[in-house]
Design brief:
heterodimer, A: five-stranded antiparallel β-sheet, globular, B: seven-stranded mixed β-sheet, about 55% strand
C-alpha cells in the first residue's frame, strides 16, 4: 500500500518569509496529491491539489510541485502571514481510492 | 463541492459502551471513508464504506470493533464498540467528489472515561 512521508514535522518562519514542506510517496499508481490545512479544533481543509499529469500548480501565495520520477511533491507558501499558522498534511492516492496522509507539519509564522 | 453533515460533533462516553457516528452527504457518492485522528497525530484510515457491500478495513481495524453501515449512496455510520480510553480520538468521514477532490465532515470528538 501507499506510504507517505512528510518533512519537516515542525517549521517556524518569520512573517513574510517562505515556507516549504516536502513529501515523498511509495506507490507509483498514486496520481492525485492534495494538501490540507488543519487549524486547531477544525476539520482538514483542502488548500491545493495536483494531479500526476501536471508538474506545478499555483494559487496566489500557495504552490505545489510534483516530481513523479522521484516520487516527491512539495508545498510552497510565499509571503507567509500569521494566519498561515496551522498543521499541514500532504496525501497521495490513486483517484477513486482512499487517501494516505503524511504525518503533518506544524507551521508557525511569527509576526 | 459536497457538504457533509457529521454528528454528533462530540461526546463523552463511559468505557464499555458504544457510540454510533453518522455522516450524511448532500450528493450521491460511491465511496465513503472513515478516518481516525488521535490527539496531535495524522489521519489514519479505518475503513472504506461502499454501498451494497461490506466495508473494507485497514490493518489494525476490525469489523467487530468498528462496524460500518452504508445503506445508500448518501449516508454511512461508524460505530465504536466496547469503548476504552484508547478510543478517545477525533473520527472523520470523507468523500471524493469528482472535480473537487476529497472533503471531510466536521468530525466527532470522542472522549472515553
Amino acid at each position: 500500500g501507499e506510504n507517505v512521508e512528510q518533512h519537516p514535522s515542525t517549521l517556524s518562519v518569520q512573517e513574510g518569509d517562505s515556507a516549504v514542506i516536502k513529501c515523498t510517496y511509495s506507490d507509483s499508481a498514486s496520481n492525485y496529491f492534495p494538501w490540507y490545512k488543519q487549524e486547531l479544533g477544525k476539520r482538514p481543509q483542502l488548500i491545493i491539489d495536483i494531479r500526476s499529469n501536471v508538474g506545478e500548480k499555483k494559487d496566489q501565495r500557495i504552490a505545489v510541485t510534483l516530481n513523479k520520477t522521484a516520487k516527491h511533491f512539495s508545498l510552497h507558501i510565499t509571503e507567509t502571514q500569521p494566519e498561515d499558522s496551522a498543521v499541514y498534511f500532504c496525501a497521495a492516492t490513486p483517484l477513486n481510492n482512499d487517501m494516505r496522509f503524511g504525518a503533518g507539519t506544524r507551521l508557525t509564522v511569527k509576526p | 463541492s459536497a457538504v457533509i453533515s457529521q454528528k454528533p460533533s462530540r461526546d463523552i462516553c463511559q468505557r464499555g459502551t458504544s457510540l454510533t457516528i453518522q455522516c450524511q452527504v448532500d450528493s450521491q457518492v460511491t465511496m465513503m471513508f472513515w478516518y481516525r485522528q488521535q490527539p496531535g497525530q495524522s489521519l489514519t484510515l479505518i475503513a472504506t464504506a461502499n454501498q451494497g457491500s461490506e466495508a473494507t478495513y485497514e490493518s489494525g481495524f476490525v469489523i467487530d470493533k468498528f462496524p460500518i453501515s452504508r445503506p445508500n449512496l448518501t449516508f454511512s455510520t461508524l460505530t465504536v464498540s466496547n469503548m476504552s480510553p484508547e478510543d478517545s480520538s477525533i473520527y472523520l468521514c470523507s468523500v471524493e467528489v469528482a472535480g473537487y477532490g476529497y472533503t471531510f465532515g466536521s468530525g466527532t470528538r470522542l472522549t472515553v472515561v
